[in-house]
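Protein folds are increasingly written down as discrete tokens. With that in mind, we are printing a sequence and the tokens encoding its fold.
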Amino acid sequence: MSKKRGLSLEEKRTRLLELFYEKKEFFLLKELEKIAPKEKGITSMSVKEVLQSLVDDNLVDTDKIGTSIYFWAYPSKAMHTRQQKLQQLTDQISECEKKIASTTKLLKQANSGREQSSDRDTVLKELAQKEKLCKELEQELERYKECDPEVLKNMQQETIMAKEGANRWTDNVFTIKTWCVRKFSLEEKMIDKNFGIPEDFDYME
């Protein structure tokens, strides 16, 4: 019986992003380490590494509230990030193609008479490097062309849901603050200071 192949890093990244998109909630790392293995088959020990790679690529947002660090991601954010990357790669390819054209022109001049020279070798080497870079950029660009069109259709709806989710968390914070004031006779300013809650903290309009 063949041994079951483990998930690659890219597969884990994709599945963890799917979890965020499906749940549309904020999570602590410990919560993700419990949910991801059950729902997405990602081992709990690898969740932190996969999550950090998504944060580094700006596909997952994170913020510290008090002593807790929360993570969240919405498809609209992912689409915006991909569009920026797509534009960046397109610009790089355009610049690369200009350099290749310039190098090709120099190569033709260097090939005149087919004389062997150090300048000709240098130009050939530079051309090979530029062609390799251009090919790599085109391959990466192709990856970003595979964005799900449904994301664009649902972008407005996801934005509304993100706003509702943010206001729901804001309401929770206000509820907890009120409870602390009544239960422990604390001042709201002291609570805000200790838990890093800004003065302009309020519902999203």
